[in-house]
Amino acid sequence: MIIQSVELNNFRNYTEERVDFCDGFNLVSGTNGQGKTNLAESIVFASFGFSPRSHQASELIKDGCTKSKVKIDIKKSYGVQSIEYIIDDQKQFFINKNPIKKQSDLFGTLVSVYFSPKELEIVSGGPQERRDFMDNDISQLSGNYYNLVQRYNKVLSQRNKLLKGDHKQVIDQIDIWNEQLASLAAPIIRTRKNFINKLVFPANDAIKYISKQTEEINLEYLSVKGETTEEIKINILKALNDNLSKDMELGYTTIGPHRDDIKIDLNGKDCKIYASQGQKRSIVLALKVAELKVFTQSLGEKPILVLDDVFSELDSSRQKKLYEALSGYQVIMTGTTFKFKPQKDENANYKQIKIKNGKIC
Length: 361
Hints:
Helices cover about 45% and strands about 25% of the residues. By secondary structure, the chain is an alpha/beta fold.
């Protein structure tokens, strides 16, 4: 898939602008605070249904305005599709002008892989950052998975509410909630395990390429044991029962996919502890390249790559290698300047887009 254009109306610092993209590298430049990241955000919002920068959609509306609207035209193998969204007192999405009723219906229309400096928290942050990384990616591939996670969270909330109550009531009712929770947890865990297993090899290939064969990474999903959904469910049920006393004491559920994590090793060592900032950036970029490969294989179409401020802290050698690794994909890349540019040929054309104070120059 290829983004042909983005039309912005009262979005962040944009009043009314249209940006046309090429199908290769789009280098979006400008000094800080001009609107580069806002443009990237408008695309990611259409993919995920939420902003990676703000919990309140209303914050995306230009100051002094009451409504924001964005329209994105996407070229796919079977034709052109459009996504529109309007933000006022709520957010509304339209695909080919038809309103969608559930957020899960949005996923798969514009599939994007996103990088910003905040994405370094996949390596440096807590387990929640890595769980969000998995869930956001898998949801783009499967609206059913997104709905499954929402249902799990509701049952989890109800079990936690029960755990805070009278102990006799807990003993009388806990088996019902354990069964429901385990039935939802098992397919989530199995799906996440499969996703991480698919990421391992392309991520390792990518970091080897970017680092000129000096670095290797390994990914391991940390959860209950089990290969099949049924095995995982049995093990989850056992763990829930084994930890019941602890859960009752704490007043919340200590076992399940909401507590799982990913272990990321660089050259055999925990990258959270031993990797430098530059290495952590390379690890996350390798994960992003791997996402591109997994998405392409799953969808039969190439996703969009949005890189916001990617080149800071990358030396010239790694910058060049990154360009080479991304050849053949549409890349929308922001930065204050671009010292290195891809070579223009049949595989890697590029377009320069300059932004000043919310206007395309």
